[in-house]
């Protein structure tokens, strides 16, 4: 627990604020004490100024769902005031660390203990689903383990199954289900998949996917069900692998899991004579939490070292394995003309959108001091609002929940390599037109060979280095245009010097001169939701470098002239229309694809990612 900050209130409703637990999404969680001495966890909204109607409705919905699932399996709602000037909700304070913190600090669990945690978590999910609620963000950080058994917390992106919704969500990527990663509806079976991923984590110490070092690649693995189950104890395989089946209809229900696990757990408990079933290290950490809570209740605020991992009642995960990014660009990049200028966007909905692509822009190479850019880390995720056709817009309040929603889509008539969206896995066919321009010639230069192999219509895993204006790779790497790492698409390969490549904020070219031959690739940016790019203010407008990519969690590592990150939330056909929304956030708009489309983006809030769950 952290001490109250300067911007924290002294009290919330009838509860005196003792300290700050965490900042989750657009809310903050405090420890409070009632006049009678009861400890509670109090969640409030972080919105600046007046709380919007949309934010108030979302908060009231979270309160309603949390009240529906009261019982011994979660943190019960004690009190709430969703209509207050600053809405708040008080829940019982759970004196236990999360499974995530326990594994991180004490190591994985032995198989017998995993089965007992599985039984308790299955019982919690069964109660949740019986109440008609799908959690949608089951993960190690959202399961607390006090002495009396697991508790499932955080209903910020849960949904009631009896409410018709068009909103889709994605929980934390490493624990989400394939159908959620593909933009399909979350169901009770999605929670079971997430439970299986959580059980794998506490048994092995890692999520059930290869560490790709990049969020978008990880999301691709999840969408395909491309699991890496190395290290899973054989005795846990039947349980975990059933939960991780790609077909939601083939996964067991929580009640079925409980029926299977209960007799096994009872038999093993009898065989051990009632001895503690958790490892000593786990027991000591749980007892330490309980001791801290008792002290807090008896003498007031307890302020442990804020650097200490794990805080009672928490549940937020630190950066997951996807937070690492691609390697930095090569130290000796290829010769390349200056980067495409940054482009201006005006706020959505304020006035008719202006195409300011020709506006003067800062030279992104003015300053190269500071840490090298890290292209993609964790793309935040959350519900996406589905529109007709393939156009989508993802509200940032849920993009910044601990995990990202990527909806596979393709602009009609623009990309034969991509399958259409629609909530199912992309079916990819290699039908890109192959032309005969610049046929490859034998050469011992691998870079020249790589450039010679590129054809019009190919997509490449490359992006602009924000500060040098050079490309992130030494040579082009072709990838399928439906892949998440497809950053740019080749529009032509037969230009003489790049000056006749199409111009625009989302267009550039890549030059390689081998001495014997010069190769020019004309490129167009491929847009995907949740990706971030650097920007700066220009009055009421925003200047952004659309050809660049940046780790959304590393906005504090930007150097001048850039000041903050923008996050893409939508791509829409045509240059007209605005990006405004009723979710209380401000959006900006850029004209792209030669005027055929426009993207929407919002400015990441100060303190991101601490401000997300």
Task: Give a nutshell description of this structure.
By secondary structure, the protein is of the alpha+beta class.
Key structural traits:
613 residues; alpha+beta; Phosphorylase Kinase, domain 1; Transferase(Phosphotransferase), domain 1; 3 domains; six-stranded antiparallel sheet; six-stranded antiparallel barrel; 11 helices; 24 strands; 19% strand
SSE arrangement:
Blueprint (H helix, E strand, L loop, with lengths): L10 E2 L2 E10 L2 E7 L5 E7 L7 H16 L8 E5 L6 E5 L6 H8 L4 H20 L2 E2 L8 E2 L6 E2 L6 E2 L6 E2 L9 H4 L6 H17 L10 H10 L12 H7 L10 H18 L8 H20 L43 E5 L36 E3 L5 E2 L2 H4 L46 H8 L5 E2 L17 E2 L8 E5 L14 E7 L4 E8 L6 E7 L2 E4 L19 E10 L13 E6 L4 E7 L10
Antiparallel strand pairs: 1-2, 2-3, 3-4, 4-6, 5-6, 7-10, 8-9, 11-13, 12-21, 12-23, 13-14, 14-22, 15-16, 15-17, 17-19, 18-19, 20-21, 20-22, 22-24, 23-24
What do you see in this structure?
- The chain is of the alpha+beta class.
- The chain has 3 domains: 11-93, 2-Layer Sandwich (Phosphorylase Kinase, domain 1); 99-283 and 318-322, Transferase(Phosphotransferase) domain 1 (Transferase(Phosphotransferase), domain 1, Orthogonal Bundle), CATH 1.10.510.10; 325-613, no CATH class.
- It is 22% helix and 19% strand.
- It has helices at 53-68, 99-106, 111-130, 178-181, 188-204, 215-224, 237-243, 254-271, 280-299, 396-399, 446-453; strands at 11-12, 15-24, 27-33, 39-45, 77-81, 88-92, 133-134, 143-144, 151-152, 159-160, 167-168, 343-347, 384-386, 392-393, 459-460, 478-479, 488-492, 507-513, 518-525, 532-538, 541-544, 564-573, 587-592, 597-603.
- A 6-stranded antiparallel beta sheet has the order 1-2-3-4-6-5, covered by helices on one side.
- A hairpin with a 2-residue loop joins β2 (15-24) and β3.
- α3 (111-130) runs antiparallel to α8 (254-271) and α5 packs antiparallel against α7 (237-243).
- GO terms for molecular function: ATP binding; protein serine/threonine kinase activity.
- Residues 327-338 have a biased composition (Pro residues).
